[in-house]
């Protein structure tokens, strides 16, 4: 139970910076005198760092241990956010985005693998609820500070301080992580050693990660801009709606944790995809409030998908392959969040942000088709 609490706290820190860029960018770009699509560059660098550290996660964990990687990751994130708060030029944000991305990747893969192997599906959903709590805090703080002088900077500074506090809290746990890992070295996983990886399963799972990350990162990066440009909300109201998106994501994962006791991961994913399509259709209605509702419902649909996919990793690929596959899966997802939001931003900037809706409908339908090819497995562990 102790380690589960530590992991929950760490996932709060992982969620804190994820919602900030999209929420603050409408004001950041004015302060830095940058075009609207420049946010894609920062997203590209952040996700690029995350991809590299995700792929190398199994090497880093093996060499340094989960505890040291966890503490270092939180520190890198805190340092980068503090740098964002005091940066005066756009190139400084680009440089700081490197440690911000690296700080997220390895620890994300390591902790997800640990929970997938050692806890039931409900804990995986609840774990990512704590990521949502962190993601909720960001837009709420920004909405409070946004109308003050340098409000977005103050928001980043406060969140950096929260990260530093979490960093100091985690330092004493390094030895306990080391003791726990040493105790697990002799765990018998012989029954999983000969697990054959099905290439068709790999393909459909990687496609699922790609689409999921595309949808989630698009809301995070461009959702506020869409609400301002098309639904005509103010900056503060748009930030509040994005925070409600994360509330829906978080509460949805709390709920799906309970549902996972009765419903398989596979079926939870299918239900989530259908809810995403429903929310996307609401965006078509020419009404601001339906637009806000659609964003929130998309958050509910996204809720069970990512933790359910992660929890299936040792089931689909075996424990022996789980850490490496976890890193590869997440890296593939981050490839999507690296390249697709900038591409989508360019398309929307050159055409119209009205097309934001059609992107969600099209990829939602593709995702629904992909779920039909998931293999049948035994009930959630």
Q: How many runs of DSSP E, i.e. beta strands?
A: 0
Order of helices and strands: HHHHHHHHHHHHHHHHH
What class would the helix/strand composition place it in?
mainly alpha
Structural Rg: 20 Å
Spans of at least 5 consecutive residues with low confidence: 187-194
What is the straight-line distance between the termini? 18 Å
Note the main sheet.
none
Roughly what percent helix? over 70%
pLDDT averaged over residues: 84
- Helical stretch tally: 17
The general outline is: globular
Approximately what portion of the residues adopt beta-strand conformation?
under 5%
Describe the fold and architecture:
The protein has about 375 residues and is mostly helical. It has 17 helices and no strands. Helix 1 (about 1-15) runs parallel beside helix 7 (about 120-145), helix 1 (about 1-15) runs antiparallel to helix 8 and helix 7 (about 120-145) packs antiparallel against helix 11 (about 235-260). It is globular, with a radius of gyration of 20 Å.
């Amino acid at each position: 139970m102790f380690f589960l609490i530590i992991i929950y706290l760490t996932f709060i820190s992982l969620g804190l910076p994820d919602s900030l860029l999209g929420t603050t960018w409408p004001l950041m770009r004015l302060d830095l005198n940058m075009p609207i699509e420049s946010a894609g560059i920062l997203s590209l660098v952040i996700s690029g760092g995350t991809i590299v550290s995700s792929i190398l996660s199994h090497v880093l964990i093996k060499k340094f241990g989960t505890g040291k990687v966890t503490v270092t990751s939180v520190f890198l994130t805190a340092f980068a956010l503090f740098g964002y708060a005091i940066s005066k030029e756009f190139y400084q944000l680009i440089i700081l985005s490197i440690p911000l991305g690296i700080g997220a990747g390895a620890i994300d893969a390591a902790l997800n693998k640990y929970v997938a192997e050692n806890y039931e599906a409900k804990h995986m959903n609840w774990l990512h609820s704590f990521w949502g709590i962190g993601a909720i805090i960001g837009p709420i703080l920004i909405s409070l500070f946004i109308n003050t002088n340098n409000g977005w900077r103050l928001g980043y500074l406060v969140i950096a301080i929260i990260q530093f506090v979490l960093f100091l809290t985690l330092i004493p746990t390094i030895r306990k992580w080391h003791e726990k890992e040493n105790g697990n070295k002799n765990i018998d996983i012989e029954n999983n050693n000969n697990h054959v990886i099905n290439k068709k399963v790999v393909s459909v799972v990687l496609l699922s990660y790609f689409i999921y990350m595309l949808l989630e990162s698009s809301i995070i990066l461009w959702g506020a801009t869409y609400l301002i440009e098309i639904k005509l909300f103010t900056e503060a109201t748009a930030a509040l709606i994005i925070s409600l998106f994360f509330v829906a994501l978080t509460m949805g994962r709390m709920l799906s944790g309970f549902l996972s006791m009765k419903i398989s991961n596979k079926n939870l994913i299918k239900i989530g995809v259908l809810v995403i399509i429903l929310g996307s259709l609401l965006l078509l209605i020419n009404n601001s409030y339906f637009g806000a509702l659609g964003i929130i419902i998309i958050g509910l649909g996204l809720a069970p998908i990512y933790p359910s996919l992660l929890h299936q990793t040792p089931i689909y690929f075996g424990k022996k392959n789980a850490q490496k596959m976890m890193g590869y899966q997440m890296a593939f997802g981050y490839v999507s969040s690296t390249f697709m939001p900038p591409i989508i931003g360019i398309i929307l900037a050159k055409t119209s942000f009205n097309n934001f809706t059609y992107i969600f409908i099209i990829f939602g339908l593709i995702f629904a088709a992909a779920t039909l090819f998931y293999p049948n497995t035994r009930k959630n562990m």
